[in-house]
Each structure stands twice: as structure tokens, then as C-alpha cells.
Amino acid sequence: MRQQKRIAIIGAGPSGMAALRAFAAAELQGDTNPEIICYEKQDDWGGQWNFSWRTGTDHYGEPVHSSMYRNLWSNGPKEALEFAEYTFDDHFGRPISSYPPREVLWDYINGRAMQSGVKARVRFAHAVRWVDYSEEAAQFTVTVDNLRTKETVRETFDEVIVATGHFAFPNVPNFTGIETFPGEVIHAHEFRGAERLKDKRVLLIGGSYSAEDIGVQAHKMGAQQVTMSYRSQPQGFAWPEGMQEVPEIVGFDGQTATFVDGQVREFDTVILCTGYLHHYPFLSRELHIESPNNLYPEGLYRGVVWQNNPGLCYLGAQDQWFTFNMFDAQAWYVRDLILGRAELPSAEARAEHARAWLERFEAAQTVAQQVQFQADYIRDLIDATDYPSFDLDEVVRIFLAWKADKQANILTYRDCTYPSVITGTMAVRHHTDWLDEFDDSIERYLETPKPQVTQ
Amino acid sequence: MRQQKRIAIIGAGPSGMAALRAFAAAELQGDTNPEIICYEKQDDWGGQWNFSWRTGTDHYGEPVHSSMYRNLWSNGPKEALEFAEYTFDDHFGRPISSYPPREVLWDYINGRAMQSGVKARVRFAHAVRWVDYSEEAAQFTVTVDNLRTKETVRETFDEVIVATGHFAFPNVPNFTGIETFPGEVIHAHEFRGAERLKDKRVLLIGGSYSAEDIGVQAHKMGAQQVTMSYRSQPQGFAWPEGMQEVPEIVGFDGQTATFVDGQVREFDTVILCTGYLHHYPFLSRELHIESPNNLYPEGLYRGVVWQNNPGLCYLGAQDQWFTFNMFDAQAWYVRDLILGRAELPSAEARAEHARAWLERFEAAQTVAQQVQFQADYIRDLIDATDYPSFDLDEVVRIFLAWKADKQANILTYRDCTYPSVITGTMAVRHHTDWLDEFDDSIERYLETPKPQVTQ
């Protein structure tokens, strides 16, 4: 029998990187880690933050993972996602604004992971094809294609951490007559930049974050008209001239769309902002989350341990107010279970715990209650680990302030600033108003402040 | 031990449908068939001919298979693809034109398959995840996700027929600076119609069939300018005003592309016509074709039997002059091997046979030689089966006439007509010139001829 445990991490995005960091932190404390292999199908880590111009499938024929677009700026304050053990001050050495663009956030997560020297643990361009579990051996066999050498390898592991996320496979429902629409029809997952929406009449189908942010991006880039179609309820922001919400769509006839309130409009481009699927094509259904995108998917003890087979854990499987620091809390806890620092309760105790939290989740109706629910969920994890505690209730207040700022003005909320709950450092206002800033590069972002340039 | 053999067919496109038809034909002759299960990830059969408005991934999260576009008309004469045992006369009951639109061809292949009553053998919305081979059991285990019920099933088979094709996973190379191009960037696989290219400056990267046909479609639909960038050699057709060929691309800077001859041009839309990959993510590399797209991929005896494991066969794995009737010849031969009607030669004999054909393939340099090579290849298969023989040399002549017609006029070749080599029936000219026909529906196509309508 092999002495050392073997652990597979599937995916090297923010969650997988958190797991690698968690094990590196234990090693620094003198712990002996199991053998860890992280499989990543992309050529670099960063997951969603690894921007690709490609859509559909990549140069290896694998589904493109990232839904990132050129013009993306954080749509929540960075103070709500800050790593408690690697702060923005640690990385940038000076205050920055609260809503950085994608390259800046990529630099931050990359910087922390590089500091731990864990990149060698990642097998890039490796696509996991299938995960088998053997009851007798109490082991997983992971079948992986090395996309560069074109070899298939099979390795056995004691535990598997699924860190592939659930914002990579779009939900693409049908709409009557959409096959007759002659313009561009894409899902938000395939959206790479709003520049080409200039002068266009854009229809965004959906009423959540994708529609909101692609909508304001399109508006910023000069779209003639931005129409957002909601199903359950309008977003209700104070939209500027040229942006409006309409109810559910009835169907298309060529360029014309009809809505349930009887409105008929013509469009040049349609973007489905219809969300994502929990889709793990490498997992048999016995190991596969079956859940809508919510804050407490069923079947996961403490939001991470697969109840039916606790050798399998998920990171980041929840809908997310909190992101990077929640992945950390989850990764630290999963690491502690694997290292034996934390004890896994019995199946009955786990089910009981999950039941109690599911009840709390179902009771959380308002936004404030839901954010608080996730803060409490994270606190429960942090309390079980040595991940540095931070003021989660203050982060809840930042989230609510962010919500209020968006209500006040959906076009200017990214100019607001918040203090770090970890370091107390107050963010600085970006040198250029977001609405006037057309250069999203890290170089431009980190430039010494100078008078605003309007393009 | 199980008495009856079990056969899995993966994919219910034209190749998989040919296999189903082949077994049905044997049954009509009194043969006892093995148990056959055909897995198809789409909701209907037809493969590439099953048009979907979706791109990227489908409503199940699976990569979209079809590269079909609304406006596609056959780009080769139907007389070259006619089933020898189900003719166009059999299906339509009257002569039709030589280059029908997609709905008409779909109707034809669907009509034949329906006639055999084999649809019940197809498990639709079933995605094959992994195929394992056990040397001891001499059996394959196929792991499949039922995408509707969300169950994972594992079934064992004696033989597996891979009929998923190789025009579903695009080859998406990188181009310097393409991530800065602000317009639409898609691969031909994601192209769904040329209407939106009206008034656009369109760059098509590639010098083969996709660039040619999307180019003339764009021209037909009123593109301002169609530029096709070739790597090895120009297509060399007599392009109309507004269409031109340029050599290889150096890179992009925003909307501007530079070419190796020093030309610099601005574009609104880029379509990669860069071909497809042999990509079978459900096959380990021991079972996986490793080949460029050519007329005789290595490792396949008679173009179908996997040399290293003859329990695995591929249909339609070649580059294709011939299509539907070649799939038939392959399917009939594979069926005969499975039924024991044909004998599989020894590994050495198979390797020797493949070597000889590979030499012939490499000697075929001109188009005429290559078409003749594929005709001879098909004849070799038909001679080994009871598939109805037909005049393959006459089909070669039709292919060469088609080539000449295209050279004469790339915009009008679809108005030409040819006789069926099976029935002798002469095709009729479509009631409307292709360039003036903007309605691709089967209803419009089958209308009683009337004076030409120009839209």
C-alpha cells in the first residue's frame, strides 16, 4: 500500500489556486503535504480571469472556459473579495481603486499564486476526461488527456477536488423563431467586447448581472439602443436614455422580437444573458451536482464535501456574493480535512448540518439576508481552520453600500471607493471616471494620476 | 457468456444513419442482426444536416456539432453523393436540380433512414463520455450520459463504430493581435448565415471550401468587400468585383490586418475558415485517429478498421469528395465484418493493404488523381459487399465537370445540371438562378417552376 495520499485538483482557476495556496501554507507551517496534482485544460491558470479571444472551442478542441470580455471591470468592490492573507496592499504596495479592470485582478491572483511557487504542481493543457471511483480500492481513477503530447494518462487518487467552477457552460434555452434572426446571436459566455455594439440596437435576454454589465458596456461604447428582457422581475436601475427593460420575449420573426406586453421591436444583435449550467462532463451523475445556481447547492456538506462520497469536494460551487476569499475559506477547510487537521463528521451529522443550513438559506429572502447568509457560511468555515479571520459583517455592509451605489447610478458606481476590511486602507478614486475610461490595461490603470482624458 | 453480439454506433449523422441502414438491409435479407445501440448527443439525427441556431455549446452544455448555416446549398452536385440504393427519384418522385439547399438534402437522408424504421435504435440526447477497452473481456465499455434524465449508464459492446465525423471541432489557430480586433471573430463552424454581412468588410482566413462558400454567400448577401487570405495557394477563381484573395496574414492591430505582401486593410468581421480537427474526446489516444484531414488517415485498414484494435471502426474519417455513398460503402463493409459475411484479414495483411493504399494516396497529386483515388477506394469496398455497384468513374467525370464549372463562374455553377449515374435521370435547372434565390426552404424549392423572381 502507498503511504502518501494523492490528491487531484481539477481546474487551476481562482478556486484551484486557492487550494494550491492552502496546501503551500500548511507546508510553510511544517506539515507534510500529500502528493498534489492539479489538472488544468487551459495553457495558463486563472480560470475565468484568463482572457481568451476564442469562443466555442479552443485550439485543442476543448470548450472555451472563460466568459471574460476585454472591457470587463470588477462589478463588485474589490474590498469584498480581498484575500485575508494576501492583501491588495501586499500586492500593489499602494492604494488602488475599488473596481479594477480584469488585468489588474488577474495580476493580483497570479501574484499570490506565484508567491507560493505552486505553478509546478499544475499540469497545463490537461483535460480531465473521466473520474471513476472504486469502492473496493476507495480510490478515484482520473483519466486525463495531455492535449500537447496527445497521450491519455490514468492516475489514481485518494481524494479529488473539483475546482472547475460553474460559469463556463452557458444555459442556452430556445426562443421561438430565433433561428430566423439574421444578426449576431451569442450567449454572454461568447461576448468578448462591447466595441462592436456601437450604433447597434442590442437585445439582451436576461435580468441579472450579465445583462446589467453587458448593457452598460454597450451603452458606454455607443450602442444606439440597449433593451433588456427580464423573465421574473426587472432589474429596476435608473437606466440612462437609450437603455430600457422589457418583459419576457414571446418570439422572433427575423429581426423583429415580440414581448409579452405586446411591444414589437427590431434588433441588430441578440445576446443571451441566461446564466450558466452546473456541467461537469467528466463526472458520473453519482458525483455530479444537480442544482440551480444558488447559495447552497444540495448534496454538499459545508458547501464543499460531496455527501455521497466525501472523497470528492467541490470549491466555488455556490452562487457568489463573496468570491476569492470564500474560495480560500473553502480551500483551507478542505485542506484541513485532507490533512486530518479537521475531522469529517459522520454521514448523519453531515446531513443534519446541511439540512440546518439549507433551512437558513431558504429563509433568506432579501438581498441583505442572502449576503448575510453567505457571510455566516464563510465564518463557519473559517472558524474551523486557521485562515485569517476578517470582519465579514463589515463586508456585508460594503455589499449593501455597493447595491445602494448601483441604485443611485448604474453608470457611476464604479467610481465609488471603500476601505479594506483587512488592512483598513481606503481605496483611491481611479484617475479617470469609469464611463470615460476606454483603456482597460494594467499599464494605464497604474499610471500616475493625471487630468482626465475623455476619448 | 452472452450469445448475441452487441454493437455501439456513436453518432447518428449521415455515417451513423448509413450503418443503421446497412444492418436493416441485412435483416430484410433474413440475416440476424446483433443488438445495436446508436448514441446521438443531439435531439435528432442528421449530424451536420441537423441545423442549429446555437453556437458554442447547446442546451445540454455539449459542444454544438453542426457547422451548418441557414443559406447553405450543396456545394457539390447531388449526383456525386446519391445513395445507390435510395435514389433522388425514389425520394422526390421527379427530377430536381443538382445543387439543392440543406433542407432538401436533409429531407432526402431523413427519408431513407425513416424508410428503414431504425429511429428506435437511436438513443437521442445521449453523450458518450468515455470508451474503455478490456483486453481480457475483449469488450468495450461505453460510458454515456443521458442528457435528459441526467443518468450515467455503462454498457458493454463487442464492437464500436465511431460515426461522429471530423467537421465538428474547429481548428482555431492564433493570429498575432487578434485579441484586439473589435468586430465579430468566429470560426466557420459558428457561422449561421450571411445576411448580417451586408455592407460589411469581411475577412475570411483560409483558402478552401469554407472560405469559398462563405465568401460567395457574403457577396450574394451584399457584403461591401470580401477578402480571403490563403496560406499555401490562392483558390484562383474568377472572383467578381468586391471579392479578392490576399496572401497570409501577419497580424491584427484593432480593425487593421496586415498581410505578408505588405497590404494593410481594415475589416468589420473576421471568419476563420481554418478547417477542423480530428477530435474524439471520448476516446483514449490508443483508439484515436492522429491525422490531418486527408483522403487516407493512417491507422485505418480500408479506411475504416482501427488497425490496433479491429473491434473499433470509423466511418467517414476521410477528407471527402464522395460523401453519402462513400459512407454507405464503408457502412456495408463494416456491417459485413461484424456479421461475418466478410473476413477480417490478419494484422499483417491489413497493414500491408493499408501501406499499398497509402502509397497510392501519396502518389495522387492532381485533383483528378485524388478524386479517382477516392473512387477506387470506394470501389474496393463495394466489391467486398452487396452494396449496389454504380459507375464510379462517371462520378469522377461529374466531379471534374463541377470543378470546371466553378472555374468558369463561381457564382453560377450551382445552376448547372448533371445526370444521375444510378437512374440516368437528368437534373432539371432550378426555377430560379442561385444568385437570385434568397429563399432556401424546401417549400420554395419544390414549388412548381414559375418565372424568375429577383429579390
TrEMBL record, chains A, B:
It is an enzyme of class 1 (oxidoreductase). Its cofactor is FAD. The keyword Transmembrane helix does not apply. It comes from the Bacteria. Transmembrane segments: none annotated. SUPFAM superfamilies: FAD/NAD(P)-binding domain. GO terms for molecular function: flavin adenine dinucleotide binding; N,N-dimethylaniline monooxygenase activity; NADP binding; trimethylamine monooxygenase activity. Its EC number is 1.14.13.148. Keywords: FAD, Flavoprotein, Monooxygenase, NADP, Oxidoreductase, Signal. Residues 1-24 form the signal peptide. Pfam families: FMO-like (PF00743). Belongs to the FAD-binding monooxygenase family. This is Trimethylamine monooxygenase. It comes from Leucobacter exalbidus.
